[in-house]
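so my prof wants the structure for this chain in the C-alpha cells format not the other one, which i didnt know existed until like an hour ago. anyway here's the sequence
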Amino acid sequence: MSDNLSEYSEFITNVHSLYARYEDTWDLSYRSFVGSEEYKQGRYLKMFQSDQQTASEVISTYTQDEFGNTTGKYKSRVNTGFNRGDALSGNDEGGSYYNEKIQNVSFYNYVKLIVNEYNAILFKNPAHRLLPETDQMEFFTQNVDGRGNSLPEFFSEVDVLVSVFGVAWLSCVKPSGADTPRFNIHKPLDVVNWEFGFDINGDQVLRKLVIKVAEDDNQTVFRYFTPETIETVFVSQDDDYLPPELEGLFQEDEGIFRVVQENELGYIPVFPIYQGIQTFPGVGSSPLLDASIIQREIYNLNSEIYSSVNYSIHPTLIVDQETDELNNGEISAEAGGIIRVNSGLQGEQAFTYEFRQPNTDPITEIRELIDNKIDKMLETCMIRSDDLIKASSSAAMVEVLDTKLQAFVRKKAIQMENAEKRAFDIYHDWTGESNNVEISYNRQYNNRAMEHELKELNMLMDLNDRLNVGVEAQELEVYDTQEQAEGIAEAMGGSGSHEHTADDGTVKYMPFTTHDEYTELMGASAPATDLRDKLRDRLEQLMTQSSTSNSL
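here's what i got, hopefully its the right format
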C-alpha cells in the first residue's frame, strides 16, 4: 500500500480533531432536543454508589420465602453483587436502582420548546421567494431532498438543526445519471472530517469533506468530496466480510471499496450554515448548547427529588425489639399496617414505638433551585418566562429580552436567506440555468420589530428619492447601528457594512463592506429602479404579515 493510499484511507476513517472535541456536546444538544428514549439512553443522571448497589425491585417491596410466604418488608436492600456495568445495562433481576431512575425520573424538554419557538417566529409567515417559473423548478420545489420535503419544509428543518447544533451542513448534489440535483442537510455529528484551505484571493475554501451517510454492524458508508470527485466509500467492519452489494466495486484498500463520480463543478457543493459566529471552521455557537447543559442539571435535580421521595420522605417507624419479634418482623408504617403489642396487668402499654417524620426542607430548596435554573435557561435563550411576564418589576428585563430576541431573529433570517441563495447558486451551477432567485425571510417578532422595519423602510424610501434626483454618495447619511447599514446594503442587492468615524469621534456605519463598493453603486443610475421594486415587494409582505407574541 502506497503512502498516498494510506493518507486517503486515514482521512476517511479518522475524525477531525474538532469533531472529537465537540462530539459529546453535539450529542447532548441533539438528545436534549429529541428527548424521550434518546435522552434516557444518554445516561445523563449522576450515579451514586448506592444506586449501583441497590436492586430496584426491592425498594419498598415485600420479600418472600421459597414457599411464597411473605417474610418481611424492607425499604431497601443492598446487593453487593451489582457493579457499574450491571447498573447501566439493567441486567440481573430487574436492574439496579440507577436503572429505575433512568426509567422514571421526569424529563421536561425545555430545549425543544425553545427551538420550536425560534422556528415558529421565523416561519410564522412564508418566506417571499421569486423563482424561475419553469416546470423543472416547480417539480424540484415540491421535493427538494428526495424525501418528499418541499422547499419551505426543508429549510424549516435546516433552521432547527442550525439552532440545535450552532452549525449544520447543506449539500447540493446531482447523482450520476439524474436530471435534477438534490438538497440535503447534514448534522455535524455526521460530518466527521474536513479540510479548509485558502484560494489565491485569500478566501477560505473547502478542500476535502467526509460525511457519514449510513452505518450498520457490517459496514459504514461515507460520502467523500473533493473538487475533482464525489465518492461513495464503503468501509467494512470485518475485513473477512464482503457485503453482496460491494462485489465488483473498486477496492481502494483492505476493507475499503468506493464508487467514484466526477465532480463537474470543480468545487465541493457543500457548505456550513452557522447560527451565529463561526467558532472554528466547521464549528458554530448557539444559546441552545448552554441551554442543554442547564436542562441536564434540572434533570439531575429532579432525580434528587425522586430519590428523596423513595428513600426518606415517608415517616420511619421506631420500635423496640420485643414489639418487632411479637409481630414476626412484619411491622409496617404504611396505611393498613397493624402493630400488635401486649398490655400490662393494669392495661398499660408494655412496649413503646414512635414515628419519625423526615425533614422535607431539602426538597423545597431543590424545587426553588429548579425554578431559578429554568428562568436562567429561558433568559439565556432570550425567551420570556410566564413569571417574568407577570412581574411588573421585570418590565425592563422584558424589554431587554425583546430587543435581543428581535436582533437574534433578524440575524437568523439573514443567515437563512444567504444559505438558501447559496444553495440555489450551486443548484444552477449543476443545471446550467440562469440564477434569477430572490429570497426574503420574515423578520417580524412583535409590534416593536414591525416598527423597526417600517423605520428602516422609511430610510430606504428617502435613499430612493436621493438616488432619483442624482445626489452624490458622500451626501448620503450614515447610520447609527451596524444593523441599519446592513439592512440598507441588503435592500440594494449587497451585504455587509463598514465603519465611518464622524467629526465628533463617534462611530457611524455605512452600507456594504467597503466604501469603494458603496460609492460605486451610489453613482450608478440602475439601482434606483431595483430599489423601488424591492421596497414595493417588502411593503406588500408587511401588509400581509402580522406580529407574533413570544411566550412559552
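also thought this was worth mentioning. The chain has a mean pLDDT of 76.
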